[in-house]
Amino acid sequence: MTYEVIGITVLWIFLYGYLIVASVDFGAGFYSYYTKRTNKNHIIHDIIQRYLSPVWEVTNVFLVFFFIGIVGFFPATAFYYGTALLIPGSVAIILLAIRGSYYAFATYGAHESKIYTFLYGATGLLIPASLTTVLTISEGGYISYEDGNVQLLYGELFGSLYSWGVVLLAIVSVLFISASFLTYYASRAKDRNALALLRKYALIWSFPSIGMGVVVFLLLSQRNAEHFQNMVDIWWVFALSLAAFAAATYLIWQKKALGVAFIMVMIQYFLAFFGYGASHLPYLLYPYLTIYDGFTNETMAIALIAAFIGGLAMLIPSLYLLMKLFLFDADYIEGKK
Amino acid sequence: MFFENDPVLLSRILTYVTLGFHVIFATIGVGIPLMIAIAEWIGIKRNDPHYTLLARRWARGFVVTVAVGVVTGTAIGLQLSLLWPNFMQAAGHTIGLPMFMEVFAFFFEAIFLGIYLYTWDRFKSKMKHFLLIIPVAIGATASAFFITTVNAFMNVPQGFEFVNGVLTDVNPLAAMFNPATPTKVSHVILASYLTSAFILGAIAAIHLIRGNKHVYHKKALHLTMVSAAIFAIGTALVGDFSGKYLHEYQPEKLAAAEWHFETESEAPLILGGILTEDNEVKYALEIPYALSILSGGTPDTEVKGLNEFDPEVLPPLWIHYFFDLMVFIGMFLATVSILFVVLSRKKGWNPFNRPLAWMIAAGGPLSMLAIQSGWVFTEVGRQPWILRGLMTTAEGATTSSHVGLMLILFSVLYLVLGVTCAVVLRKMFKGNPVEHELEERGISQPTA
Ligand code: HDD
Ligand code: HEM
Ligand code: HEM
Fold first, then answer.
1. DSSP state, residue B267
2. What is the mean pLDDT of residues A278-306?
3. I need a surface site. Which of A317, B249, B271, B335 has the fewest CB within 10 A?
4. B91, A75: Cβ pair inside 8 Å?
5. Whose CA is nearest to atom 36 of ligand 3?
6. B187 CA to middle of ligand 1, Å?
7. ipTM
8. Which uninterrupted H or E stretch holds A22?
9. Closest atom of ligand 2 to CA, residue B376
10. Rounded to an integer, what distance in angstroms lies between the CA atom of residue B124 and that of residue B121?
11. How many whole angstroms separate alpha carbon B160 and alpha carbon B177?
C-alpha cells in the first residue's frame, strides 16, 4: 500500500466510526423529540439518556479527527473544499454547536425544556443532511474552478436529484442505524416496552434505507459514470452488504440475537461505505484532485501514521474501558448504578 | 456600506470572534481539571468531605463549559480551513502533526471525562475514581501544548526548505519545537492554570462577600489562592522569558508593544501613555532600564527600535495597550494571591477580610481579560504575517464573498451560547446550594 492509500484508509475509518456513533446519537435525538410529541417519551427516555450522557463528546471527536486529519494528510483539500464549502460548512458547524451545547445544557443543567428537545431532535436530521453535501460535491460537477478561484454552484447543488437522493439516504440511514442500536440496548436493559417501540422503528426504517441506497446508486450513473462503473466492477461488495442487511432485518424481526443484528447493520454500512469510498479513488474531488496530487510530503506522512499508531495504542484500551462501564455493564444499563 | 465586503478583513474578524470566544472555555478547560484533581486528592488525603464535594461541584459546572469549549473548538477547527484555505494548505504540510496529535489528546480527555463524571459512587475505593481525573488533566494540558506549538510555528516558521515556491525537506518535529515553543507553551499553560484558579477563587470570594461564612467556602478560597500564588509567579517569570524570546526572534513585535523607536541600550519600559502624530510618547510612565532588562537581563542590552524595520511589515502600534493591560493584571493577580497566602500564615491576621475578598472577586474576570489581551497582543503583533516572513495574512485568506454573512451568524450563535451557558450555570448552583448538598449527603458541619 502506498502512503496515500494508507492515509485515506485511516481517514475513511474515522469517518465510518463517525457515521455509526453519530447516527446513533442523531437518531436518538430525533426519536426522543418525536416520542415527546406523541406522548410516548417516558417509554424510551431513560434508555436514550443512559447511553448518550457519557459518550456524546466522544462522538464529536470522530468528526474532528476526520477534518483535522484530512488537512494533515491531504493539505490541498483545505484549498478546494475550504473555499467551496464556506456556507454549507458553516451551517453544519452552527447546527453541531447548537446540538452539542443544548444537549449538555439540558442534561447537566438538569433542566428539560421543550425548546431544547426540539433543537436536539431537529438538528439530528439536519446535520447529516448538511454534512453529506461534501460527499455529493466530491462526485464532480458542483464546483467551478477558474483562474485559481473555486466556487460552489448552488443552483446545480439544489437542483440536482442526486444531491437530494443523498440527503434522503443519509436521513433514513440515521434513523435505521439508531433504531437498531437502541433496540439492542433496550434488550440489554431488559426494558420490554422500549424494546417493542424501538424494534418497530427499526423495522419501519429498514426498507427505506436499503431502497434509498439503490436509488442513489442508480442516480450516480448519470452524475459520474466513471464512479458508477467502478462500483459495478466491485458489485460483490454491495451484494455482501445487502446480505448483511437481510440478516440484520431478519434477526430484528425475529427478536433474536439483537446484538448480532446490530453488528450486521454495522457490517452492512461498513461494506457499502468502503465500497463507495474505494470505487471513488483515486479522486478526492472529481476531476480536480486525486489522493496523489493533494498528498502531503513523505516525512509528514510517516509522522502522521506513527502518531496514528501511537494514538490508537492509547485509545483502544480507553475506549474499551468506556464500553465496558457503560455499554456492557448490565447493572448500569438497567439503571441500577 | 458599513464594511467594505473585504474577505480578508472579515475573515480576520471572524477568526478573532471565534478564537476569542473559544479561548474563554479552552482556558478553563485546561486549568479546571487540575484544580479538580487537587481538591479531590486533598479530600482523600485529609479525609475531608468538603474538598471532595468541592471537586464534585466544580466538575459538575465544568462539563457545561466543556460542552461550549468542544463546539467552539470544532468551529475553529473547521473555520481554519474555510477562512484560511491557502494558509492551511501550506501549513498542513508542516504542522499537520501537532494538530493531529491534539485531536488524540482531546479524544483521550473526552473518554475519561465521560467515565469520571458518571462513576463518582461506582468504585469502592475513592482512589480509583481519583485516578480517572488524571488522564483528563493530562489530556487537557497536552491539547493546549499541541495547539500552542502550531501558533508558535506561525511566529517562527522553521523545519522546511522553501525552494521555488515548493516546500521540501520537511521536518515536522523541528517545525513543532521551534524557538517560540518553550516560552509560548509554558506561558499559555501556566496562564490557564492561573486563570482557572482565580475564577474558582472569585466564586468563593463572592460567597464570603455576600456574608456566607461557611468553612466550605473558606477552604475553597484557601486552596485556590495558594495555587494561584504559585501559578502567578510562574506566569510572570515565563512572561519575562517571553520578552527575551521576542527580543531575540521577533524584535519588531517587542518594539511595537513598547513604542520603542530608536535602537539603544538602557532602554526604558513605557507604561500607558499616548502617541502623538509624530510618534512622541506622552503622559506615559517610564521605568528606566526596564525594557533592556526585560529583553536581555541587563541594563546595557541593546534593544532594536522601530525605525530599523521596513514600515510595510510593522504591526499596528496600539498593541502597546494590550501588552500593558496583560502585565498590569499579572502584577495585580500575583500581589493579591501572595498577600492572601502571607495573611493566612501569620497568626492574628485575617485573610478573609472584605477588601481582599473584593480584590479576589475582581481577579476572576480580570484574569480572563489578561488572556484576551495577551492573545490580541501576540496575534496582532504578528501582523501583517500569518506565517512570519513567508505568507501574509491577506495571502492566506479565502476569496469567498460570503464571509460577512457568516460573521453575523456566528456572532449571534456565540452570543446565544454564552448567555445560555451563564444562565444554566447560575440555575444549577442556585437551585442546589452547598449547605443543601452537604446536608443531603450527610456531611456533618464541622465547626471551623
Ligand atoms: C492570565 C494571563 C496572563 C498574565 C497574567 C500574563 N500573561 Fe503574558 N500572555 C498570556 C497571558 C498572560 C497569553 C494569553 O497566554 C499569551 C498570548 C499568546 C501567548 O503566547 O501567551 C501571552 C503572551 C505574552 C508575550 C508574547 C509572547 C509571544 O508573542 O510569543 C509576552 C512577552 C508576555 N506574555 C509577557 C508577560 C509578562 C512579562 C507578564 C507579567 C506578569 C505576563 N505576560 C502576564
Ligand atoms: C494556537 C493556535 C492558533 C492558531 C493556529 C491561530 C490562527 C490564527 C489565524 C489563521 C489568524 C488570522 C490571521 C491574522 O489576522 O493574524 C489569527 C488571527 C487572530 N488570532 Fe490566532 N490562532 C491561534 C491561537 C489564537 C488564540 C487562542 C487566540 C485567542 C483569542 C487568538 C487570537 C487571534 C486574534 C485576535 C487574531 C486577529 C488578528 C488581527 O486582527 O490582525 N489566536 N489567528
Ligand atoms: C487555532 C486554534 C485552535 C483550534 C483549531 C482548536 C480546536 C479545538 C477543537 C476541535 C476542540 C474540540 C475537540 C473535541 O471535539 O473534543 C477544542 C476544544 C478545546 N480546545 Fe481548542 N483549539 C484552538 C485553540 C485552543 C487553544 C489556544 C487552547 C488552549 C489554550 C485550546 C484548548 C482547548 C481545550 C482544552 C478544549 C477541550 C474542551 C474543553 O475542555 O473545554 N484550544 N479545540
1. P
2. 78
3. A317
4. yes
5. B26
6. 6
7. 0.81
8. helix A3-37
9. 35
10. 8
11. 13
Query: Which pLDDT belongs to residue B39?
Result: 92
Residues A248 and A180: beta-carbon distance below 8 Å: yes
Rounded-to-integer distance, Cα B231 and Cα B195, Å: 9
Ligand 2 neighbourhood includes B385 CB (under 6 angstroms) = no
DSSP H or E segment with residue B218: helix B215-249
Quick one: closest CA in B to A315, which residue? Answer: B108
Contacts of B210 (CB under 8 A, 6+ apart): none
Q: Are A55 and A104 in contact (CB under 8 A)?
A: no
Q: Whose CA is nearest to atom 5 of ligand 2?
A: B151
β-bridge mates for residue B161, sequence order: B168
Q: Report if pTM > 0.90.
A: no
- The reply to whether B77 touches chain A by the CB within 8 Å rule is yes
A182, A47 contact by CB (below 8 A): yes
Q: Enumerate the residues of chain A whose CB falls inside 8 A of the CB of residue B18.
A: none
Q: Report the candidate in B258, B262, B319 with the shortest Cα–Cα distance to residue B294.
A: B258
**Could you give the CA distance from residue B412 to residue B419 in angstroms, rounded to a whole number?**
11
| Rounded distance from Cα B67 to ligand 3 centre (Å) | 11
Bridge partners (DSSP) listed for residue B285:
B271
Which chain A residue lies closest to B403 (C-alpha atoms)? A86
DSSP string of A231-245?
Answer: HHHTHHHHHHHHHHH
Handedness of CA B190, B196, B199, B203 (dihedral sign): negative
**pLDDT value of residue B448:** 42
Cα(B19) to ligand 3 centroid in Å equals 9
Interatomic CA distance for residues A2 and A302, integer angstroms: 11
CA angle B302, B305, B310 (to 5 degrees): 135
The per-residue pLDDT for range B309-331, each reduced to its tens digit, is: 777 778 888 888 899 899 999 99
CA A28 to chain centre: 13
Phi, psi dihedrals of residue B162, rounded to the nearest 5°? -120, 100
- A280, A18 contact by CB (below 8 A): no
**Backbone φ, ψ for residue A293 (5° rounding):** -90, -15
Quote the CA–CA distance of A162 and A139 in Å, as a whole number.
Answer: 10
Q: What is the pLDDT of residues B348-373, one digit of tens each?
A: 787 778 888 899 999 999 999 999 99
What residues contact residue A204 under an 8 Å CB cut-off, 6+ apart?
A: A179
B378 sits in the region (left: phi over 0; alpha: psi -120 to 50; else beta) called alpha
State the angle between helix axes of B49-83 and B85-117 in degrees (0 to 180), rounded to the nearest 10.
Answer: 160
Report the run of H or E that residue B387 belongs to, with start and end: strand B385-387
C-alpha cell of residue B32:
479546571
- The structural domains of chain B, with segments of one domain joined by +, span 2-263+304-440
